Amino acid sequence: MVADAVHYYKSGDLIILGGQQPHVFRNDDENGRMHSVFFSPTSFGATFINLEEGKGVASFYAFAKAGFKLKTTSSLTALFEHLSRVKGIYKLSYFLQLIAVLQVAKKEQLSSFVYQKKISEVDGQKMNAIFEYSLQHFAESITLQQIAAIAAMSPNAFCKYFKKRTNKTYFQFLTEMRIAHSCKLLRDKPEMGIAAISEASGFQTLSHFNRKFKSVQGRSPSRYRDKELESTSNKLYR
Length: 238
Fold this sequence. Notes:
Shape: globular
Low-confidence stretches: none
Number of helices: 10
Radius of gyration: 20 Å
Mean pLDDT: 81
Distance between the termini: 33 Å
CATH topology of the largest domain: Arc Repressor Mutant, subunit A
CATH class of the largest domain: Mainly Alpha
Order of helices and strands: EHEHHEHHHHHHH
CATH architecture of the largest domain: Orthogonal Bundle
Oligomer: single chain
Number of strands: 3
């Protein structure tokens, strides 16, 4: 999850997030691992990004605020491996090469919303608790009172707090999380019936699931599955 959006990632995905973007990752693979690189505009000194040589870093940082995702390539993988091994000026050199490659790569934006104020450590912990609880319990019924209690807030205060930081209501966010999970099941479990997927994704009735799915995805669950299976089949026979 990144700010106001829910996404699935898989092996080979490269994700770039702005420093103030609330986010949480969930990995179902116990053997999965992630390589991380952290930097800020002042990582190279207070004046570097104002120099001609630093303009690329500044524009990249501004673009990355909303977060984006792309598929890694052999050259990107090599740069990450070099960054993990080298030190000093060589690390800086490889990092600037990484920024240069990412700037021209084809990217998928992860969020349409950037929270403009600095997120405090307390805010970060609170948003993480909300996201984690939602990930663990989205297939169950979640009431406003329950999720507000996780944030140690009154229901009214929670609604304002969440909307201000994600640009949507909690239940809009929860519905999109459930739809994202149903999309994964539709893609990965062709033997699973639509009604079973609806229930496993937290929807109490099939009609409600169908209506919400179409409003988010623009097509019915069955049509979505047909398109995904067709796309997978075409890739296999190319």
